[in-house]
């Protein structure tokens, strides 16, 4: 079983070396004559104005939050779906309760206006 | 197979690293990351034991640990974001009042 | 084959620990978060090495995919990122180091080394826990924890929305859902009643 993952490992190493090796090669081959203009931040060719750290809206965080919660819901859903054939109707009811509780959270977020983009 | 004690030792070292992070760093975000690392090391030990005793129970416990970790990080970071908006700091030494 | 697995384990363990050390020591929070992701990822690879495939996928999906996104968004919302000019450590950080070393040396190491790991498990050799087995266990022995997990997630979602979404500076207390909906309805109605003034404002 583990041997099957060796292919993935080989693939992973090959995929990682694909961008890394040319970068290393380029590092040794290229001439390096940095000037101040060359090292400046590139922003569409214009001069960059202000700090890169702008304050983000809290909506970003709330979206990520909803994503995390429903991601974990999916994680619970998957083994249930795989085992469903052996479990029958009872499992369906149980999962319906599970989903119903979490949909309550989604409804709350929706009604509260947390999912609206201001 | 790798002996299970190796995994347990690795998980112990990772847990201790998390403890060091929680105890020494002053930035609350790094403290949260260290807590996540400690929970992750507990998961590692659980899976190692589950594979050692050939039982599903350890793996199922990992799911609940993941759920708790996500709930903890969601509420904790929400608190942190709110505290930052009123106090402009994430330094846990300066967050010392209960009243905002 | 065994030696190869051992080598892979050692490489992964070294990488995990190096990433963990970087999380704890590095100054820039973004870098700390990225190292944390790296450590999660190598732990996922270690789950694969233990042939716990589903847990490995879940680790990548939840920790690498979701929780790190949450952490990164929280970093974006709280500004001091590069950590220059900010004190990073407690003044007496060495005491914390001693406490951690004591925890490790006194509690963990003796337990790990004195336990007899070589003893074979007594039960009959069952097949390694598969996804089907996990799903069945959720619906049978672990039914109540399973449902409680969903309640926990619900509470986390609602709690985090209440904490992060409210603007505390303008309101003295958190509005209930009914009050919030009522307020929004009134606001919408007032917008609907006065569209003419709005139009004349924009035309000027």
What is shown here, in short?
In chain A, about 70% of the residues lie in helices and about 0% in strands. By secondary structure, chain A is mainly α. Chain A is flat and about 70 Å long.
Explained architecture:
The complex is a heterotrimer of chains A (118), B (100) and C (204). With 118 residues, chain A is an all-alpha fold. Chain A has one domain: Methane Monooxygenase Hydroxylase, Chain G, domain 1. Helices cover 72% and strands 0% of the residues of chain A. Chain A contains five helices and no strands. In chain A, helix 3 (58-82) runs antiparallel to helix 5. Chain C folds into two domains: 1-83, NADH-ubiquinone/plastoquinone oxidoreductase chain 6, subunit NuoJ (Four Helix Bundle (Hemerythrin (Met), subunit A), Up-down Bundle), CATH 1.20.120.1200; 129-196, no CATH class. Chain C contains eight helices and no strands. Chain C starts with a helix and ends with a helix. Chains A and C meet through helix 1, helix 3, helix 4 and helix 5 of A and helix 3, helix 5, helix 6 and helix 7 of C.
Specify the helix fraction band of chain B.
over 70%
The largest contact between protein chains, plus residue counts on each side, is: B-C, 75 and 85 residues
Indicate the structural class of chain B.
mainly alpha
What is the 3D form of chain B? elongated
Structural class of chain C: mainly alpha
User: Which blocks of ≥5 consecutive residues of chain B have pLDDT under 50?
Assistant: none
How much beta of chain B, percentage-wise?
Answer: under 5%
Name the CATH superfamily classification of the largest domain in chain C: NADH-ubiquinone/plastoquinone oxidoreductase chain 6, subunit NuoJ
Low-confidence sequence ranges of chain C: 198-204
Question: How are the SSEs placed, and which strands pair?
Answer:
The complex is a heterotrimer of chains A (118), B (100) and C (204).
Chain A: H1 2-29, H2 36-39, H3 58-82, H4 84-87, H5 89-112
Chain B: H1 4-24, H2 28-52, H3 57-87
Helix pairs in contact in B: 1-2, 2-3
Chain C: H1 2-25, H2 29-49, H3 53-77, H4 93-114, H5 131-139, H6 143-165, H7 177-193, H8 195-203
Q: What features would you highlight for this structure?
A:
heterotrimer; A: 118 residues; mainly alpha; Methane Monooxygenase Hydroxylase, Chain G, domain 1; C: 204 residues; Four Helix Bundle (Hemerythrin (Met), subunit A); 2 domains; 8 helices; 74% helix; extended; disordered C terminus
């Amino acid at each position: 079983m583990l041997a099957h993952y060796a292919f993935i490992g080989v693939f992973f190493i090959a995929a990682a070396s694909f961008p890394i090796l040319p970068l290393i090669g380029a590092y040794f081959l290229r001439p390096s004559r940095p000037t101040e203009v060359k090292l400046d931040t590139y922003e569409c060719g214009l001069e960059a104005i202000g700090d890169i750290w702008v304050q983000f809206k809290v909506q970003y965080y709330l979206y990520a939050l909803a994503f995390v919660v429903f991601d974990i819901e999916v994680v619970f859903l998957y083994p249930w779906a795989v085992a469903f054939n052996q479990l029958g109707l009872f499992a369906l009811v149980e999962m319906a309760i599970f989903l119903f509780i979490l949909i309550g959270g989604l409804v709350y977020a929706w009604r509260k206006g947390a999912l609206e983009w201001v | 197979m790798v002996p299970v004690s190796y995994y347990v030792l690795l998980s112990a070292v990772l847990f201790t690293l998390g403890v060091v992070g929680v105890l020494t760093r002053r930035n609350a975000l790094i403290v949260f990351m260290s807590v996540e690392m400690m929970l992750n090391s507990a998961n590692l030990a659980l899976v190692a034991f589950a594979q050692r005793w050939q039982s599903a129970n350890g793996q199922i416990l990992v799911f609940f640990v993941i759920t708790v970790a996500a709930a903890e990080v969601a509420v904790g970071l929400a608190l942190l974001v709110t505290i930052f908006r009123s106090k402009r700091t994430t330094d846990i030494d300066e967050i010392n009042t209960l009243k905002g | 084959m065994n030696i190869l697995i051992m080598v892979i384990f050692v490489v992964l363990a070294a990488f995990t620990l190096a990433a963990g050390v970087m999380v704890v020591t590095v100054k820039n929070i973004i870098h700390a978060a990225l190292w944390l992701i790296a450590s999660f990822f190598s732990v996922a690879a270690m789950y694969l090495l233990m042939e716990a495939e589903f847990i490995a996928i879940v680790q990548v999906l939840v920790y690498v995919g979701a929780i790190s996104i949450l952490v990164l968004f929280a970093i974006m919302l709280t500004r001091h990122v590069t950590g220059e000019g900010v004190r990073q450590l407690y003044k007496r950080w060495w005491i914390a180091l001693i406490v951690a070393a004591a925890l490790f040396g006194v509690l963990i190491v003796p337990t790990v080394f004195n336990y007899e790991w070589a003893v074979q498990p007594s039960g009959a050799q069952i097949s390694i826990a598969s996804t089907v087995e996990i799903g069945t266990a959720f619906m049978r022995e672990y039914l109540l924890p399973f449902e409680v997990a969903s309640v926990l997630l619900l509470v986390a979602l609602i709690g985090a929305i209440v904490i992060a979404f409210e603007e505390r500076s303008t309101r003295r207390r958190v509005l209930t859902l009914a009050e919030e909906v009522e307020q929004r309805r009134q606001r919408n109605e007032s917008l609907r009643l006065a569209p003419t003034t709005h139009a004349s404002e924009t035309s000027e």
